[in-house]
Amino acid sequence: MHRNRSRSPMSSYHQQSSDRPKRDEGRGDGKFFRPTNHHRHQLGSAPLSSQVLSTRRELYERDFPLYKQPVEVGCFSLDSQRRFFNDSRQLRYYVEPDRCPNFDLRDGYKDRYVRRDENVKERLDHILRWIVANRSKLKSRASANSSCALDVDFVTWRGHLTKLLTTPYETREGWLLAVTRFNGTLYISEVETEAARQERENRAERNKEMMYWGYKFEQYTCADTASSSPDPRGVVNTNEAFCTVVQTRLTDHQLLFSGEVDCRDRDPGAPPPPACYVELKTSAEICTPKQRSNFHRFKLLKWWAQSFLPGVPRVVAGFKDHDGVVVSTETFLISKISQLIKNEDNCWKPTVCMNFCCDFLSYVKRIATEDSPSVVYLFSWEPRREVTYSVHRDSQYTFLPRWYIQEMTSSPESLHQH
Ligand code: A3P
Ligand code: MG
């Protein structure tokens, strides 16, 4: 048992090998950690029973892991006051802009902008509300001690998985991921790092305005219905969101995650979700080969990771000038991005991203063995370091709400009686 109660995340440390759980503890998934001797000897990586996880790119250059086509199992909406609805009322429809759009992204920043309160930490709450509302849709696996176990290994936000995918290439921002095992399912919820909090609280005015630009671009290109037009005179309210909930599998990891979707193809004959979804992005206009190279190496990595995960097939990019005017747009197909970056030297590789994520999830399964809503395994990573963890009981990190635990521990029969 790990006894390092409520350690500060900043003092996270490498666990001693004597403190290591046995390899076949947990749910018998030890076989999936089998290191190939090839990797161990040739690349000098730590054995896969290690208490830490390396993020070195070379270790993850294997065949692309099995990633099942993501299936949308539901969706939800958050309204202008951040209230949850178990439906698609906030879904918007993509309207293709003109060749020279000239969208002024600064318009409305001062007087038509309602910003979501970033001090409110929602953690996994909206996803958990969706799970409670849709329990019957999620197959239940028979289990001796609970009739309510979900048939998934991991529940999380898509954004947390995006961070994992890009970790082997990230040089600036670390992360903290809190993990709780409850009824056999591992819940992953991000904790804001001290550096991220400081960055957020001391954000320069220019950066605050530039954050608005992305949402303003959405307003110029999205309509509320399939037959209406965008209304750029309206208010931009970042409380509003439409989120898809998808189920998929990465090798032996069954995943259920949710991610915000900007809009969908407005053609009623478009394929079913998530294939009809469109991700909108803005980026600085590209004027030099160096800028093009940076766009491929850094921006396309983030865009690919974010949309590949939920199976969103295309990103529409608005290229903006220094004054926040969109001068052109371009569609990027996610399936074509790996081709596009092939000419860049020393560029990122999708297989490294997916294999790292897969190995991280295996590592989490192996470490987070105690099934209790009040226990948090806090996984911590800083650039140029390994992933480490610490364990916290009944601490500030506990994130599964009481209402969720109650809903998921009472049997469906007893629920009917209330
Ligand atoms: P852009 O990425 O087009 O600039 P998303 O594209 O993920 O749907 O996010 C919509 C917009 O939210 C972004 O548009 C950006 O304006 C803002 N945003 C999201 N994450 C951000 C971050 N980490 N830092 C700054 N702005 C962010
Ligand atoms: Mg977007």
Automatic annotation (TrEMBL):
Domain RAI1-like: 68-404
GO CC terms: cytosol; nucleus
UniProt keyword list: Hydrolase, Magnesium, Metal-binding, Nuclease, Nucleotide-binding, Nucleus, RNA-binding
EC number(s) recorded for this UniProt protein: 3.6.1.-
Basic and acidic residues bias: start-end ranges: 17-32
Subcellular location: Nucleus
First and last residue of the signal peptide: none
Annotated region (Disordered), positions in chain: 1-48
EC top class named in words: hydrolase
A Pfam family it matches: RAI1
Cofactor(s) this protein requires: Mg(2+)
InterPro entries documented for this protein: RAI1, RAI1-like_fam
Bound cofactor: record note: Binds 2 magnesium ions.
GO BP annotations listed: NAD-cap decapping; nuclear-transcribed mRNA catabolic process
Reaction(s) catalysed (UniProt annotation): a 5'-end NAD(+)-phospho-ribonucleoside in snoRNA + H2O = a 5'-end phospho-ribonucleoside in snoRNA + NAD(+) + H(+); a 5'-end CoA-ribonucleoside in mRNA + H2O = 3'-dephospho-CoA + a 5'-end phospho-ribonucleoside in mRNA + H(+); a 5'-end FAD-phospho-ribonucleoside in mRNA + H2O = a 5'-end phospho-ribonucleoside in mRNA + FAD + H(+)
GO MF annotations, alphabetized: metal ion binding; mRNA 5'-diphosphatase activity; nuclease activity; nucleotide binding; RNA binding
Domain of life: Eukaryota
Chief location bin: nucleus
Biased composition (Polar residues): 7-16
Family: Belongs to the DXO/Dom3Z family.
Functional summary from the UniProt entry: Decapping enzyme for NAD-capped RNAs: specifically hydrolyzes the nicotinamide adenine dinucleotide (NAD) cap from a subset of RNAs by removing the entire NAD moiety from the 5'-end of an NAD-capped RNA.
Protein name per Swiss-Prot or TrEMBL: Decapping nuclease
